[in-house]
Design brief:
The complex is a heterodimer of chains A (317) and B (371). Chain A is of the alpha/beta class and 317 residues long. Among the domains of chain A are: 98 residues, no CATH class; 60 residues, no CATH class. Helices cover 58% and strands 11% of the residues of chain A. Chain A is built from 16 helices and 7 strands. Chain A has a 5-stranded mixed sheet. In chain A, strands 6-7 form a two-stranded antiparallel ribbon. Chain A starts with a strand and ends with a helix. By secondary structure, chain B is an alpha/beta fold. Chain B is built from 15 helices and 16 strands. An 8-stranded mixed sheet of chain B has the order 4-5-8-9-10-11-12-16, with helices on both faces. In chain B, strands 2-1-3-7-6 form a 5-stranded mixed sheet, with no helix packed on it. A 3-stranded antiparallel sheet of chain B has the order 13-15-14. The two termini of chain B are 31 Å apart. The chains are: A alpha/beta (317), B alpha/beta (371).
Chain lengths: 317, 371
């Protein structure tokens, strides 16, 4: 390996055989290079009559943006691409955490460099912090193959591995339908939405596209008064209701009965989660003795009503 | 009835387990199967993980080893539910049948079909255990962490177990199976306290979720044969699974059962709806992509396991109980729930067991006193 200077135009950006990062922000790096220069030069190799980047894509792009003509580089003499890639992989490993997409790309590249599947599972998965099992390798390789626009969302929304695996269960076209819905949601809600939608599709034997084109969902999609997050939240709830129709029917009926007996707003009554236990839970707040007695009186009044007993018998089996 | 018997591709014998009569017997019965003596199965488990479906792969191998701990344990049941004071004997671990809903997929750390061969330790522990239970009649079985009979053509343990338990009058011993591997059982004299039990389901569930097991019809016919021999039988509708035609299909199984098996010979019937720890859902979806069982309305129960929403469970149980009780002769067959709350007992069976002791008495005393 030797240090040299190359003209930026002499470094090919087309050959991506060593590239693992596609989504990144240059802001901080630009700031740093402007302030202190390029302290750590990128590494390049000479292949097919041109220099290609082995490591340091971000740095090269940053220098390009700063309109540098020449940059310092380390030129690697190593001829074996696989060996170079592995060296860089280990080098970076000590410096930073790889993202989900980078891990997927690394595994795909190693596979392309003909690293055996067994070695990928037993050596490289644990190295990347992934459990050494074939099913994980399979999933990461699938992630590496999704379309660029979907990868972009995965990166931007910092989607979890579980949510990405759920997303992969849908067809590419369906993924594109789903992306705008997932974008405003947090990790847990993304997972929940994808899980409910997938299971609903499986149970009812219909496509996600068909579900997302249902009238009530379309109405929300077209409502210009709603923000992206409001739309996503409402659609998430509609899908959940369709996934668990009986549960929601019961929850609605419970609320309906409360309304019928004019249950006091300031006192909360809740069934056990999913009505599994026979208990109902009551909560209210008070500051003074009078306020406390007032709540008790209100409770006594609703307890007298016939419909209150019906709530107890109906929802407790 | 043609039984497709399980033969492993290879037998691994843990070094210290070679010199046992049971090991020799298994090797004799599986004379075509290659075997290897190993120090520790952990290395094999690591290799399995590099394969796409390690759970399925591990079923190709039989591991012969020793039980170093307790053979007999109380059935763990689940929290907040009414137990039945059942005891389990862990002679086998894992099962080659590979049913989609099987909890063993995520339950055991050793994925191999495992046989414990140090039977003398079992008899010693059982002697002590039974002595300690003086004054009560209790139920015990081998079908919790495996199928009781799926390996019986290799181990012939049914003969040993029946011989041992026929003398223990305060114990009801149960074989629980989905197989029709009853040849050894038919060869020996029955005993009042030996119960041969089958897990049953609707034909559709059996075909789709238990494809490696004999059909429901074959299981019921096998039950008819052991009844003819003089044994008492039991049945477990577990897991009961919802799908559009469930009601009709379960009714059909029940009608066929009560037509082929004399209800007076049925010691008990248990009912349990589909339930599993949340992490099993992913395993089922990954390993059995054709299976739809995880897509019904399953919600977390009080014990954290996923199960059908309560009103749906009650509907399932009500309809099955009604189908059973429609048969006059089956009116008195004791029914019980596996892993259900007191509310379900009250709602469906109109019973209020105060705890597992009550259930133990309900299930075992009639068998003892009606002899």
């Amino acid at each position: 390996m030797r240090k040299d200077y190359l003209l930026l135009k002499d470094i090919s950006l087309k050959d991506e055989r060593f590239r693992i990062s596609h989504f990144f922000s240059l802001d901080k790096l630009l700031l740093s290079i402007k302030k202190v220069g390029l302290i750590n030069p990128p590494m390049v190799v000479f292949r097919d009559s041109q220099y290609i980047i082995a490591s340091g894509w971000k740095r090269v792009f940053a220098c390009q943006k700063l309109k540098w003509k020449r940059i310092p580089v380390y030129i690697l003499n190593e001829q074996d691409d696989k060996e170079i890639f592995i060296k860089i992989l280990y080098e970076n490993l000590a410096l930073r955490e790889y993202t989900l997409l980078e891990k997927a790309e690394i595994l795909l590249k190693l596979k392309k460099f003909r690293v055996e599947e067994r070695e990928l599972i037993q050596t490289y998965l644990p190295l990347l912090g992934i459990p050494p099992a074939a099913r994980f390798l399979e999933k990461y390789l699938a992630i590496s193959k999704v379309k660029k626009e979907i990868k972009k969302i995965i990166h931007e929304r910092n989607m979890s591995f579980v949510a990405v695996c759920l997303l992969l269960k849908f067809e590419s076209k369906e993924m594109l339908f789903l992306i705008p819905l997932l974008k405003p949601l947090g990790q847990n809600k993304q997972k929940e939405l994808l899980e409910d939608l997938y299971e609903l599709c499986q149970r009812n034997r219909i496509s996600a596209k068909d579900i997302l084109q249902l009238k009530d969902i379309q109405r929300i999609q077209k409502d210009e008064k709603l923000s992206h997050i409001q739309k996503a939240e409402r659609i998430r709830l509609i899908i959940k209701r369709k996934r668990y129709p009986t549960v929601f029917r019961w929850a609605d009926a419970f609320q309906e009965r409360l309304k019928k007996i004019s249950w006091p707003d300031e006192i909360t009554i809740k069934p056990a989660p999913f009505f599994e236990s026979e208990h109902l839970f009551l909560s209210f707040s008070f500051k003074t003795r009078d306020e406390f007695l007032d709540k008790l009186q209100k409770l006594q009044a609703v307890a007298q009503k016939k419909e209150f007993s019906e709530i107890l018998t109906h929802f407790n089996g | 009835m043609v039984e497709k018997l399980y033969y492993p591709e290879k037998i691994y014998i843990e070094k210290g387990s070679l010199d046992f009569p049971s090991t020799r017997n298994i090797l004799k019965n599986a004379y075509n199967v290659p075997f290897e003596i190993i120090k520790n199965p952990d290395d094999l488990i690591e290799t399995l993980n590099t394969l796409k479906d390690p759970i399925l792969e591990a079923k190709k191998y039989l591991l012969i080893t020793r039980q170093m701990g307790e053979f007999v344990k109380p059935c763990p049941c689940t929290t907040h539910c009414i137990g039945c004071n059942y005891f389990i004997i862990n002679l086998y671990l894992n099962c080659p049948l590979d049913c989609s809903y099987c909890i063993l997929q995520n339950y055991l750390s050793n994925p191999f079909i495992t046989v414990h061969v140090n039977l003398q330790r079992l008899w010693d522990q059982l002697d002590e255990f039974i002595k300690a239970q003086k004054g009560r009649t209790f139920r015990i079985g081998t079908g919790e962490l495996s199928d009781s009979l799926v390996l019986d053509h290799l181990t012939e343990y049914s003969k040993d177990l029946i011989s041992y338990f026929r003398m223990k009058k305060n114990v009801l011993f149960e074989f629980k199976t989905k197989t029709v591997n009853i040849q050894n059982i038919l060869q020996i004299e029955p005993a009042e306290n030996i119960i041969i039990a089958w897990s049953l389901n609707s034909s559709k569930v059996s075909k789709e979720e238990e494809p490696m097991a004999p059909s429901v019809t074959e299981r019921i016919e096998a039950a008819g044969e052991v009844v003819k021999k003089g044994y008492r039988v039991a049945f477990h509708f577990d897991p009961i699974i919802r799908y559009p035609e469930w009601e009709q299909d379960y009714k059909q199984t029940i009608c066929f059962l009560l037509e082929k098996v004399n209800p007076l010979k049925i010691a008990w019937i248990s009912l349990g709806s589909l339930r599993f720890p949340p992490n099993l859902k992913k395993t089922i979806q990954e390993r059995f992509p054709h299976s739809k069982i995880t897509y019904e309305e399953l919600v977390p129960g009080i014990d954290g396991k996923l199960r059908y929403f309560k009103p749906l469970r009650i509907e399932l149980y009500m309809k099955l109980v009604k189908s059973i009780r429609l048969n006059k002769k089956a009116e008195k067959v004791p029914l019980y729930f596996c892993m259900e709350t007191d509310e379900i007992w009250r709602e469906v069976l109109k019973m209020k067991p105060r705890g597992k002791k009550d259930v133990e008495n309900y299930l075992s005393l009639p068998l003892v006193f009606n002899k």
